[in-house]
């Protein structure tokens, strides 16, 4: 949509003929230039206090985009996978082995100091032991989430941290190898050195590490909001029927098995050999699932959008996604004291593409998206999605009711022609990779009531707990804004309202 | 169900089975309102497979085999295709393993199998002749390669938290941030990081050149101190003329260790504060080295210094001329 049209939209009464009804109407896509001669996979992305973009690349270069040109600022990092930009222009980067503060102390325009804030977590040298972060909490600590190792690769002869041989799996018995040969003795994804499968908190002054929570597999998204609440997402695989979003609480276990071996007094061998029901009793539930294929396969960095920006989405929790050409938005709800909620597509711009690993928010409502693949599915480079504030019809809020859902829009809906397409299913919690949809059931709607901005619908059958409700609203439009931009949501109902 | 019916199966057995399946599905729909129409196979493919599989691997990066190759492998065996999708293994060295498609129904996978056949119609699979050695598209220029450089990456013969450093692209060393010490020195190049960088970190970087000095194995730290058995604590480094000055501490002893280049000779300047008694710096086999030191004495394969000399000393390495 061009600028003139947007001005008209802002000043004239808006008719549905000109309203924004697709993501490309409400966000403007552009591609940033790439530095020449370096691998343009983005590992970390930030905005400097002066507004310039700073990016860390796959091979460890850190570059600043100044007036359309990239300038090398720092280099030599080992797989940087997240950064926090400090107010003085220094950055805190998480690399495989370390949380590092990089500064330009002599102000000559190039970094000269690489201070290790912490290197206290374990590494077997396995390729899958990624370190994600670095999310700064309001109390000044940094949160880092540590991925598990994969038995698809080996462990190194020299490791960092004490090996845990729970279940009789010694470091020696894993026969360190780099041939790619599968080591059968290790669980599919393993946490054999300290804090793998954990999110940890680091005091940047003392370097002290506090393990916060366990049971994580490949926790790419690590986010702490202004209230100090910690959000993590984890990638589908063993013990994750689909990718999940968690709100993290101190001391809890979130379901991926092997990190249980670090529990005080653990004497039950290899956790993944235990029956799933046993582990199920130990775990804390997610906020929601991110349905594989239908919504997200590998969720990435999480952000809170600013309250005063992004139109109806201000204050929302969003995240990136590796394999699909979109971002994802979370809408919270609470039932019987259980925090749960819905997820839906966000900014599914037709040009976005895959590999949306890293997000950085600029002051003008632009989300910069850094892309990577690391030889998996993905892409490279940086793109910008600028929210242009075109008025459109969007879902503001989704609440589960006793017999259905209450969906609140940002504008009054036209009551005619609204229908609901609904399906529910469960997912397995097991050591196998992923899960089929279990007992997928279509649900018919008994009634639909529309009262201005609120659409409330009741199902003909009872609400069932531990289900994902896949709901599509059809025919929703408003006189002012036209068609609902995103009519499908996936609600994880751990709990349903008790009568 | 139309998406199943429109598929053009030239294989008669397949046609029969497909019709059979369509009938079975239609019957189950008649019997129950809980059966599901599946999506168009092209949509199922787009959502679940297209991130890694292309028609003919026309675009980089290539992740998985092309549809043309998949069709070549599975055209006549739908069951084998479905079994693979649900429980994939790893058969190709250097390739990543496919994640299981267990979240999809067998009917959906069967539809994708049929769709692949349709989509690749008339395209014959030609086995790609493998190039001898993959070439790094982002290899440093000759000028860049001759500059001092610090690179953290997985390196052989050291901990996973190590740093590769070169003085000039010719004379290089590995420094381990776990034991805070020099691990080995080599001459003749720097590293080839491409085995790591082209993938996801499953390979270590290759050392380019010949290692001529290796520090003793199994040491917890660079130095033994009379008053402390504490493990070293790595604190980071400052960059001076492109080379690092590492900072670490061992108990109460503060150490800085600067790497520099003196006409091609590798100079390591070690400064300490807080040493009480003596400092012992164990050395490895020096037979391939021209090794010198500024202070202290060589005793039983180690450099031994008193606390005064330990406050600042240098050691120098160069490869012995053959």
Compute the number of strand runs of chain A.
36
Instruction: State the secondary-structure class of chain B.
Output: alpha+beta
DSSP summary, beta strand count of chain B = 17
Helix content of chain B: 10-25%
User: How would you state the average pLDDT of chain B, rounded?
Assistant: 86
CATH superfamily descriptor of the largest domain in chain A: TolB, C-terminal domain
> Roughly what percent helix of chain A?
under 10%
What are the segments of chain B in which pLDDT stays under 50 over at least 5 consecutive residues? 1-34
Shape of chain B: elongated
Structural class of chain A: mainly beta
Strand proportion of chain B? 25-35%
CATH architecture of the largest domain in chain A: 6 Propeller
Main sheet: strand order of chain B: 9-10-11-12-17-14
Short description, anyone?
Chain A has 499 residues and is mainly β. Chain A has three helices and 36 strands.
Describe the structure.
- The complex is a heterodimer of chains A (499) and B (322).
- Chain A folds into 2 domains: 20-387, TolB, C-terminal domain (Neuraminidase, 6 Propeller); 395-493, Sandwich (Immunoglobulin-like), CATH 2.60.40.1220.
- Chain A has 3 helices and 36 strands.
- Chain A has helices spanning 3-11, 23-26, 276-282, and strands at 27-31, 42-47, 53-57, 62-66, 69-74, 83-85, 91-95, 98-103, 113-118, 131-136, 142-146, 149-150, 189-190, 199-202, 209-213, 221-224, 230-234, 243-248, 288-290, 299-304, 317-321, 327-335, 338-346, 356-362, 366-371, 381-387, 395-400, 404-409, 419-426, 438-443, 445-451, 454-459, 467-474, 477-478, 482-483, 488-493.
- In chain A, the strands form 9 sheets. An 8-stranded antiparallel sheet of chain A has the order 20-21-22-23-36-33-29-30, with no helix packed on it.
- The radius of gyration of chain A is 23 Å and the shape is globular.
- With 322 residues, chain B is α+β, with helices and mostly antiparallel strands.
- Chain B has 9 helices and 17 strands.
- Chains A and B meet through strand 8, strand 9 and strand 30 of A and helix 3, strand 1 and strand 9 of B.
- Strand 9 (113-118) of chain A pairs antiparallel with strand 9 (232-240) of chain B, so a sheet runs across the interface.
